[in-house]
Structure formats: C-alpha cells, structure tokens
Amino acid sequence: MNGSEIRKQLTADLNRDYLAYLRSMPSAHDINQKPGSERAPQHGSEPLKSKEKDILAAGGARFGDIHSGHAVAIASNQRQRLMREISDMIQESLILEEVSKRLSVSIETVQALIAKEAPELFAFEAPHQILLFPRWQFTDQGTLPHLTELLKQIGKEVAPFTINRFMISKNTDLPLGKACLSPRDWLASGRDPEEVLMLASDL
Predict the structure, then answer these.
(1) How far is CA 176 from CA 19, 25, 66, 139, 187, in A?
(2) Comparing C-alpha atoms, which of 131, 98, 166 is closest to residue 29?
(3) Which residues contact 177 (CB under 8 A, 6 or more apart)?
(4) Per-residue model confidence as pLDDT tens digits over 35-75
(5) Whole-angstrom Cα distance, residue 170 to residue 178?
(6) The whole model's pTM is what?
(7) Nearest C-alpha neighbor of 202 from the set 152, 153, 156
(8) Axis crossing angle, helix 147-154 with helix 193-200, rounded to the nearest 10
C-alpha cells in the first residue's frame, strides 16, 4: 500500500479500537526495547486501567482523587477529543518510504537516524508496526533546524500526541508582533532555539 492507503487504514483502526491503538503507539525511542507482543493491538473495552489513565492524562485529562466511576466518564470525553487529534496526526504524518524519498536517503539511513541515542528524526509506531513521522519536522530544505537538540530536550517518555500538539500549537511565549508562533514555525523561521528548548523541557 502507498502512504495514503496506509494512513486511511490506520485511521479506520483508530475508529474501531481507540484504546488498543493508544497502547500500541510507543515513540520510536522505545521500538527496539519492547517485545512485539507488548506492541500488538489489544481488543475489547475493559474498565479504565492505570496505563490508560496515564495515556489520557498525557493528552490533557485530569483525574485527581475522584471516584473511579467519574474518572471513566471524564476519560470518555477525553477519548473523543484525543481520537480526533490523533486522527489528524496520522493524516499529517509520513511513512518510512516517503521520508526516504523526501530526504533523498535510503530507508536504512532513515532507520538509523531515529535509532541514535540523540535521534535526528522523530517517529512513533502505529499499529501493525508502521512507523509514522509527523510532518512538522520537515522543511523544504530538509529537516527542522535544531531538531536533534529539541528531541533530546523533550526526552523519551513523552507521548507522541503530546509532542505533536506542542510543536504545532501557537504558544503565547513565542510572540511575533501581535501574534504568536508555534514551536515548529519559530524554529523553521530561524529564531532563537533556546526559547523553544526551554518550553520543551516542561513537557
């Protein structure tokens, strides 16, 4: 399948089994550290578990000390919002072969770039062990300036959709006249990377 067909199929998978999709979405940093059985999609609608609460909390849910039944209700609302957000992220991402062509390097080189201790590209693994590369990290000239520094600052534990949201959302701490820029646009325009790196340290 080509990239468009793969993204369409992944979105269909997401709509069928949202929580299973989330469980199988580590960042590329973790791909070589987890057995395949841990990454395989799981099906069913179990009660909200600790791992699921962690995932939803990373997406913005706040549970506190409330009763678990209320936590499930809160999670239900959060799931709908995060499903839309992740669906958009899938549609805006490139697959491995597309990145290889875009950067004019081999597939093996792309794989090496994400496997480095200090990665030079960011990817996350969707169901069926498909690597997706969010489009915000690419420019017409290649990759986003200071991308390796940024990924090192963010670290390996932050959820992919949290990173994606941070990079594409306008931030009041990155002003441009009367407007604000997203971290992605700030770096792409050649502005001081320290401003974005400082914000990234809080993720």
Answers:
(1) 38, 34, 41, 20, 13
(2) 131
(3) none
(4) 433 333 333 344 445 555 565 565 555 555 445 556 666 66
(5) 12
(6) 0.76
(7) 153
(8) 20
